[in-house]
Design the sequence.
């Protein structure tokens, strides 16, 4: 089989699976992604390893669970000896490039201990990626880093200020010329002050197209990592006005959930953004804009795909479209993400393999349980790269080629609640603050270290409205799910400094050195 | 409380707990260690994190379980960002020195990727220890490293040859002047060719005493890590002849164990060294020498303790005496170690704290469940060092001072059977070859990834002769023990690049930067 030469790995931020036309949304318009899906395999049960950006992304990039890579929150430094997809692809001559968001942070403390100067390891600081236009998004406080590339770009186009990301791209103009910030959710329907062509999604797409065109015939892996439709929710015209209240889906929630909430949910429901989504007015204001931002991404993905086709790269490029996690949008009385309900952990995943071997699966829907960590093995499989003992995912190429299925009985996701208000309100010790989800086809079990568990019967309660975590009738199911958690944990790849081959060949190597043990 | 200034951390290799006088052995003579115990706390239920040298030692040195540090076999490189006791003590101005065995191997592959040249990180290659006379022992094949310091020492004393470690220190002379190798167990009662004063234990003790005397009033932590009584079993006179067949304890084993063995045990029972120990003649030949090697160590520990006293260091030095794992010596029809029966995983642990606060516990026996990983926190507690979020053990200082107990419900130990004959004979995949033990006061459960489990009722079967792993009457106990394993795994400290304080303070830090989320 001919290996592919390039990889286009498109990620959205906070795009839940059910907000694409091809995933069944009744009103959203995503013609380019729907068309891509018609030529791809669309995975209907794809899950992230954590419902928060940073830990989820580190799992996407390393092919390892959060328990293994250890970077369990946003900007938690990645251990210096973790390997990312970039580290695997670089030695193959495939340049790993980043446009947009990664949340990768290097462990400069350890580098310093080892006497490694930061200026000698530029690429290492980006997780091995070549920085084309890295931008981690959400730059509210310009003091944090006002000099980001996108701000420089905006200023070069005449959008001045200390932080035009905030004051132009994520603000609207009021009737009297005042600036209406997207941080106030009530402003979500207003058009951003900048023209669409200069918005974040357009800017990143421009950089991506430039990169692909400039690379010519040299092999590349471009991680185009949009920072939308993540909040702040504000879209440039015409996308701010593309959808209205009639286009939105009803919230998935029940009064019982609010009356007897899980302790974690109780804290999160009371936060400002969640409280907003309790009101119909907020949902009717925000969700149309969320949908507009998605349609905008769809349009720009269309531009990229057209570029690939125009220069013939559509024939030798693996294209992946996915997201780092979902968005509750008021479901379960919650905003944002950070719990394990389906709208938080289930992601869109569309994988296009142009080779003839994939012809028989084109346009198909796969309902195997698959995980974010499956992408690195898939990338390596597509370009005929080496496997690695470090990887905890498995290649999806057999699914794409109709020669196998994922075979997973369960998927797993993790989150440390110690960082946020949940940790403080519930007095969770930083060492006992992690929640872990195991989801099979029929059940979802969420284990918390010092709090009650959650259990949902996905066959009879697909909306996860009835928590069976304390129901004595389901003790056997909970035990079964704990068994999955245990086997999962015990199979994690903590032995990173030696390969599987090192293990299996050890005895022979010892014998060859004459080091056998004593005998009578 | 006055912090201590020095730490003397004495480790034996392969010394099982019940082969010291103070641990109840009826015939062995260990007067110096018994005397030390009379001034210390003697821990009666101390367990290693792995019953093999390398992984066990990495747990001793890092204060972390094998699942966390990942160095799961002998000479498996330690991840470059793992911190050892040496790394914690060095910044305090306490020099961490090594005499003897560590099995530490640096991850030179990762160092190379980071552009770190080995000659700039000498101490790093030793796990942070200052190399006084490192010697990992068992140098059968001189080609591996004939130029070890002990060989140079032996040659300087006139004991020539390519590998005098083997041909002088671990060989005897036959009646016709021929060399009788200690690799043949039948030679175990013969005296080593070298005089006792040049044997490994004496040599290492000399180096330790020189070091302690030379340090004067400068604070130090000396890890004196004897490589005996580990095989090859051969002692210099008079220790070869100090004990005889009448002095040895009967083997702990039953015919039923041999008739219906666990698959792992079945493979190990059939190995040459185990087969030897099936014969009374072999036990009567080897065990007296094993005991002699222990009495030799006792004598040399006596020299060190006398040195401490002579120079006043007995007043400001924490003294720990322990071992990296045990030795089956024919128990359960096994030689060596590498299974989780008590003679393999239970170790002697004697901790002497000279401060008045420890007066009320002197000479006491503690039957709390404690682990090898408790030593790094104990060291840091003794010298008033900082705690670390990486550490998975807990300080024993409260036990020493009579102000608390270990509070552990269970101890854990792990071993990867993929490296050895068990892996090959049982066709264990390298990714599914690990056994894990959980031991409470009453039960021991051993979980294997693809093999049947073991369960022992330690109250009614303290010799672990009846495996209840498949007995349906004990399903609830097995479930309870699996619950312990799960909670243990889920609490491992995989977040190494951020501290507990980083977690708990995150929200405040974000709020201080004005990065709160949206609201209506």
Sequence:
């Amino acid at each position: 089989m001919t290996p592919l030469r390039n990889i286009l790995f498109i990620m959205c931020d906070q795009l839940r699976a059910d907000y694409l036309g091809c995933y069944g949304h009744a009103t959203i318009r995503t013609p380019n992604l729907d068309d891509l899906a018609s030529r791809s395999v669309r995975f209907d049960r794809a899950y992230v390893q954590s419902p928060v950006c940073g830990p989820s992304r580190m799992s996407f990039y390393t092919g390892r669970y959060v328990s293994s890579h250890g970077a369990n929150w946003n900007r938690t430094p990645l251990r210096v000896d973790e390997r990312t997809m970039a580290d695997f692809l670089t030695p193959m001559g495939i340049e790993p490039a980043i446009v947009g968001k990664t949340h990768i942070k290097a462990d400069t403390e350890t580098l310093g201990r080892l006497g490694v100067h930061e200026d000698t390891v530029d690429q290492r600081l980006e997780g091995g990626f070549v920085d084309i236009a890295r931008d981690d998004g959400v730059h509210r406080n310009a003091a944090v880093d006002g000099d980001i590339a996108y701000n420089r770009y905006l200023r070069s186009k005449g959008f001045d200020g200390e932080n035009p990301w905030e004051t132009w791209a994520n603000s609207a103009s009021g009737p009297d010329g005042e600036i209406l910030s997207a941080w106030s959710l009530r402003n979500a329907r207003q058009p951003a002050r900048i023209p669409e062509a200069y918005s974040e999604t357009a800017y990143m797409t421009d950089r991506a197209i430039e990169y692909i065109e400039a690379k010519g015939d040299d092999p590349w892996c471009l991680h185009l990592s949009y920072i939308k439709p993540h909040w702040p929710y504000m879209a440039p015209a015409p996308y701010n006005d593309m959808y209205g209240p009639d286009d939105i889906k009803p919230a998935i929630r029940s009064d019982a959930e609010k009356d007897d909430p899980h302790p974690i949910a109780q804290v999160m429901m009371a936060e400002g953004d969640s409280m907003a989504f309790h009101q119909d007015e907020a949902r009717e204001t925000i969700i149309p804009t969320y949908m507009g931002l998605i349609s905008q991404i769809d349009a720009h993905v269309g531009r990229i795909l057209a570029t690939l086709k125009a220069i013939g790269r559509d024939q030798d490029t693996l294209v992946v479209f996915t997201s780092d996690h979902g968005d509750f949008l008021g479901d379960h009385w919650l905003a944002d993400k950070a719990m394990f309900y389906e709208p938080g952990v289930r992601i869109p995943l569309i994988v296009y393999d142009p080779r003839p071997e994939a012809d028989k699966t084109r346009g198909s829907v796969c309902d195997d349980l698959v995980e974010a960590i499956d992408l690195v093995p898939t990338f390596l499989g597509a370009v005929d790269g080496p496997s690695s003992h470090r990887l905890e995912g498995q290649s999806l190429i057999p699914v794409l080629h109709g020669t196998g299925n994922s075979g997973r009985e369960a998927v797993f996701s993790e989150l440390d609640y110690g960082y946020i208000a949940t940790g403080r309100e519930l007095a969770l010790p930083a060492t006992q603050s992690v929640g872990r989800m195991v989801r099979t086809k029929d059940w979802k079990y969420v284990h918390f270290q010092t709090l009650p568990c959650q259990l949902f019967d996905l066959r009879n309660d697909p909306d996860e409205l009835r928590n069976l975590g304390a129901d004595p009738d389901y003790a056997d199911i909970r035990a079964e799910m704990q068994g999955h958690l245990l086997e999962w944990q015990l199979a994690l790849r903590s032995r990173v400094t030696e390969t599987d081959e090192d293990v299996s060949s050890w005895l022979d190597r010892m014998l060859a050195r004459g080091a056998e043990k004593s005998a009578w």
Notes: The longest strand of chain B covers residues 220-229. Chain B has a mean pLDDT of 95.
